[in-house]
């Protein structure tokens, strides 16, 4: 949406005053078609508890069947204290989940930042992991409703 607003603002400027528009694509969220093609994925919600309670990234507020495993350790932001692979895998185990290696894993947060980090940690550990973005994208792609 930010790109659309930036392009609209650029188009509204008089021709002689337009400046170069730089667009940065930071998202590595899996396309809905890719997610829809996954066979029986495990879904991990890596948002903080307060974000889950507030429904950040929804609707829906949560994805049916998702297991909540916060990526942030002790509520510290990733920019302040990045979670290690070992810490995240320990958090997954502490949530009572034994991740199967024969099923894909979809991670999501509110919009895809931490979901992407979590998917990367899992891929590095040998799992078939995808960043689902936010709960709305995951639920829509997988045709789930709460």
UniProtKB/TrEMBL annotation:
InterPro entries: Rhodanese-like_dom, Rhodanese-like_dom_sf. SUPFAM superfamilies: Rhodanese/Cell cycle control phosphatase (SSF52821). Residues 37-139 form the Rhodanese domain. It holds the Pfam family Rhodanese. This is Rhodanese domain-containing protein. It comes from Pelagomonas calceolata.
């Amino acid at each position: 949406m930010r790109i659309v607003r930036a392009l609209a603002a650029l188009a509204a400027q008089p021709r002689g005053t337009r400046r170069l528009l730089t667009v940065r694509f930071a998202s590595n969220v899996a396309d809905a078609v890719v997610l829809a093609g996954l066979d029986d994925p495990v879904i991990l919600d890596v948002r903080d508890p307060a974000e889950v309670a507030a429904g950040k990234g929804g609707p829906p507020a949560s994805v049916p069947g998702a297991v909540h495993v916060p990526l942030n350790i002790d509520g510290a932001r990733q920019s302040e204290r990045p979670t290690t692979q070992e810490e995240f895998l320990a958090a997954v185990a502490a949530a009572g989940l034994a991740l199967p290696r024969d099923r894909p894993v979809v991670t999501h947060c509110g919009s895809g930042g931490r979901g992407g980090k979590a998917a990367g940690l899992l891929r590095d550990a040998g799992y078939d992991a995808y960043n689902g973005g936010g709960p709305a994208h995951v639920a829509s792609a997988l045709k789930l409703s709460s």
